[in-house]
From TrEMBL:
Domain Xylulose 5-phosphate/Fructose 6-phosphate phosphoketolase N-terminal: 12-372
UniProt keyword Lyase present: yes
Domain Xylulose 5-phosphate/Fructose 6-phosphate phosphoketolase C-terminal, chain residue ranges per copy: 591-797
Protein name (Swiss-Prot/TrEMBL): Probable phosphoketolase
The enzyme's E.C. designation: 4.1.2.-
Cofactor(s) listed: thiamine diphosphate
Homology family: Belongs to the XFP family.
Superkingdom in the source lineage: Bacteria
Cross-referenced PROSITE patterns: PHOSPHOKETOLASE_1, PHOSPHOKETOLASE_2
TM region(s), chain numbering: none
Pfam families assigned: XFP, XFP_C, XFP_N
């Protein structure tokens, strides 16, 4: 551990003066953008009309953020570093916007905010102003890959950016309030996954300013010994920089940051030149500064600086209170803006000269606009991995095991820009074929017994950690800096990343609609396996398909949901998702063995359509979608619901051969939505061609049934649409028993058809009795033997005179 005292040999007198002035300029702009809508350089006495009507923004963390930013700039110039800056404190945008504007990047992206007096006025006014930018480091901010709208993700984003960028140093400022969140707490362990030979580096800076919005922070109220031991325990070399006197702190920080950067270079030299593999003891900085540093000391008799009162707007009554207005003017003038900017509003030349230039600026680093540097994945022809389907519903294999073979080839073809992320479940989710070409990233200690199947390697590209938060953060950081990846997890636990998913979806949506200069990035691909319907031993706690509902709440411009019914459809969907950009693609596919239905060509066409009639499972007279010669539509979405729906269709074909049943399978969930609401949706005429205008629809769905009603509400079908899905019934059940409890099973589906198709007369009565008896018999069998009967477990689509071709309709 190092506690850094001032070292006057690091910054000479001239450098100290310039960096102090530059920081004053940053602090002036940070405060001014919270308050001012006019009089940007105080060229006249400050008046009430110069103040915004609503004071929105956060001052407290801003000075420390710009302090870190400009000190990193000095080292970028000195060592020609490639660097990004990530601001963890959520509302600390003024502390980053200010240096980004001062180094000229902001004006390059937004010429109307030029480095002139009028441009500066616009820049200040439009911060946290209706119709313009928010108080986070939003997507509109050049150089940002992390908004901070929700605390906790900065460090995992930083490590995700560093993976496979060997020359990059990501400076990540972590707020001490943010450090209390679960995602951030687990992200400290990311240092065990950073390979100094092939990856870049992350330099965490914990800004210990002591307070949250209304409380002290935990890490600020433990002893120094305990604090340092915490980070030593995480495996870092902590460097403590503490104080409040600016001139002294500039010398301390310059010394500390230089030591940290040189330590990073030493670690990388040992790995890359001396070939020393293993986990490094990376540096991190603990920066202890006052909350609201350099701002008002007291307001109305209350201490402000170095208390929670500095968190947001220290002087809130400036529009009405002349004393507050005078204090604000005094505060702003304390930075001496007249010495920092010329009369035209531009930073004086000697200060401009100390900022990096061109793409060396952290705000102009191309990887922060990842679409510029992104290279498409080299995708093999997925047909070579296809399941050999000679007839529908005969072959039974694991769909995800086939996907694993495809992913393995992707790893071989893309050795430096693709990673697989999952919480200790790569083998469990049947994706372990990837271990033929790569292994799990592991730089912590390994034991001899690990060689027997643990698949650990310092050079591995499979990222496993039992924290979906960290995995999701890594993947987002990886994608946001130009690469590709896939996250897989158990369906029930995807909710762990609900809010992270929300933040990324909002980022993509803002980029698509508001930030034209951001180039498209690789889509965020999530595979949910070990699904609700196959929790034979985990029980009720593992039964929750609700992540699907969450995704449907997001913008239609960014969200996509796919339910491939078999392995060949899964291959087709995966290929589509992995080459797409600017979407969040959710794929739901169970890992257990399932029946296969479509050849690879049929699967390709089926997935392209997203929804289609399966001729071989339908009555011949119900196939013509231009005709209304249909008695009932049996629709399904999801691999298990598809199998149960097919089994129901087989029963109906056997017992009611004249029933005109149309069987529809849905791969793309949004196809059932109206085209008015989603670009993948069906028009009214398309919907009525498939589902008719008036016939009953029995819909067997993977998730909660009311979701289908929500999506299809604009179609004139609510009175005839009957949806079966998961209704929170279950425990330790056999597969069929769980299906029966939620009524997605074949027998209940047959009953649904019989109860909703008119004019079946007495033909249905005997079949109803058979179905009710079958339900009772199979439940008794499960409770007696602890498993489903063989004719359920080994069920296949019957050998009858049904065509196997998928109509190209």
């Amino acid at each position: 551990m190092y506690t850094f005292e001032p070292d006057k040999t690091v910054l000479d007198k001239t450098e100290l003066t310039l960096i102090s002035q530059y920081w004053n300029a940053c602090n002036y702009l940070a405060a001014a953008m919270i308050y001012l809508q006019d009089n940007p350089l105080l060229d006249e006495p400050l008046k009430s009309e110069h103040i915004k009507n609503r004071l929105l923004g956060h001052w407290g963390a801003s000075p420390a953020l710009s302090f870190c930013y400009i000190h990193m700039n000095r080292l970028i110039n000195k060592y020609q570093l490639d660097s990004l800056f990530i601001a963890g404190p959520g509302h600390g945008a003024p502390g980053v916007l200010a240096p980004v504007y001062l180094e000229g990047t902001y004006s390059e992206y937004y010429p109307e905010k030029s480095e002139t007096i009028n441009g500066l006025k616009k820049f200040l006014k439009e911060f946290s102003f209706p119709g313009f930018i928010g108080s986070h480091c939003t997507p509109e901010l050049p150089g940002s890959i992390h908004e901070g709208g929700e605390l906790g993700y900065s460090l995992s984003h930083a490590y995700g950016a560093a993976f496979d960028h060997p020359d990059l140093i990501v400076t990540c400022v972590v707020g001490d309030g943010e450090a209390e969140t679960g995602p951030l707490a687990t992200a400290w362990h990311s240092n065990k996954f950073l390979n100094p030979k092939t990856d870049g580096a992350v330099l965490p800076i914990l800004n210990l300013n002591g307070y949250k919005i209304a409380n002290p922070t935990i890490l600020a109220r433990i002893s120094e010994e305990e604090l340092l031991n915490l980070f030593k325990g995480y495996g870092y070399e902590p460097i403590l920089v503490e104080g409040s006197e600016p001139q002294v702190m500039h010398q301390k920080m310059a010394h500390a940051l230089e030591h940290a950067v040189n330590q990073i270079k030493h670690i990388q030299h040992q790995a890359r030149v001396e070939d020393k593999n293993g986990r490094a003891k990376w540096p991190m900085i603990i920066l202890k500064t006052p909350k609201g540093w350099t701002g008002p000391k007291t307001v109305d008799g209350h201490q402000v600086e170095n208390t929670w009162r500095a968190h947001q707007v220290p002087l809130a009554g400036v529009k009405e209170n002349p004393d507050h207005l005078a204090q604000l003017e005094s505060w702003l003038k304390s930075y001496q803006p007249e010495t920092l900017f010329n009369h035209d509003g531009k930073l004086i030349p000697e200060l401009q000269a100390i900022a990096p230039k061109g793409q060396s600026r952290m705000s102009a680093n191309p990887i922060a606009n990842a679409g510029i540097v992104r290279q498409p994945l080299k995708l093999p022809d997925y047909a070579q991995f296809a399941a050999q389907v000679d007839a529908p519903g005969k072959l039974k294999i694991s769909n995800t095991s086939v996907l694993g073979e495809y992913l393995n080839q992707i790893f071989m073809d893309n050795p430096n820009n693709f990673r697989l992320f999952g919480p200790d479940e790569t083998a469990s989710n049947k994706l372990d074929a990837v271990y033929q070409s790569t292994q799990k990233t592991w730089l912590a200690d390994a034991k001899p017994e690990d060689s027997d199947g643990a698949n650990l390697s310092v050079n591995g590209r499979v990222m496993e950690m039992l924290s979906e938060h960290t995995l999701e953060g890594w993947l987002e950081g990886y994608l946001l800096t130009g690469r590709h990846g896939l996250l897989h997890t158990y369906e029930a636990f995807a909710h762990v990343i609900d809010s992270m998913f929300n933040q990324h979806a909002k980022w993509l949506d803002i980029c698509k609609h508001n930030v034209e200069w951001r180039a498209p990035i690789s889509s965020l691909n999530i595979l949910l396996s070990s699904v609700v319907w196959r929790q034979d031993h985990n029980g009720f706690s593992h039964q929750d398909p609700g992540f699907i509902d969450l995704v449907t709440n997001k913008s239609a411009d960014v969200s996509r949901i796919y339910f491939p019914p078999d392995a060949n459809c899964l291959l087709s969907v995966a290929e589509h998702c992995l080459q797409s950009t600017d979407y969040i693609n959710l794929i739901i596919s169970d890992k257990q063995k399932h029946l296969q239905y479509l050849t690879i060509e049929q699967a390709k066409q089926h997935c392209k359509k997203g929804i289609d009639v399966w001729d071989w499972a339908s009555h011949s007279e119900a196939l013509d979608t231009q005709s209304q010669s249909v008695d009932v539509i049996l629709a399904c979405c999801g691999d298990i619901p598809t199998m149960e729906a097919l089994a129901a269709a087989a029963i109906l074909k056997e017992y009611l051969p004249n029933l005109k049943l149309r069987f529809i399978n849905i791969v793309d969930l949004y196809r059932i939505q109206s085209s008015d609401e989603h670009p993948h949706g069906l028009s009214t005429s398309e919907f009525e061609q498939l589902f008719t205008q008036d016939k009953p629809i029995i819909f067997n769905f993977h998730g909660y049934p009311w979701l289908i009603h929500k999506l299809a509400y604009k179609h004139n079908a609510s009175a005839r649409l009957h949806v079966r899905g998961y209704i929170e019934k279950g425990n330790i059940n056999t597969p069929l028993e769980l299906a029966i409890q939620n009524k997605i099973d074949r027998f209940n589906l047959v009953l649904d058809v019989l109860n909703r198709v008119p004019n079946l007369e007495g033909a249905a009565d005997g079949l109803k009795n058979k179905m009710q008896q079958a339900i009772s018999d199979h439940l008794n069998h499960a409770h007696t033997y602890g498993m489903d009967s063989d004719n359920i477990s080994n069920w296949q689509w019957p050998d009858t005179n049904f065509e196997v071709e998928v109509n190209d309709k």
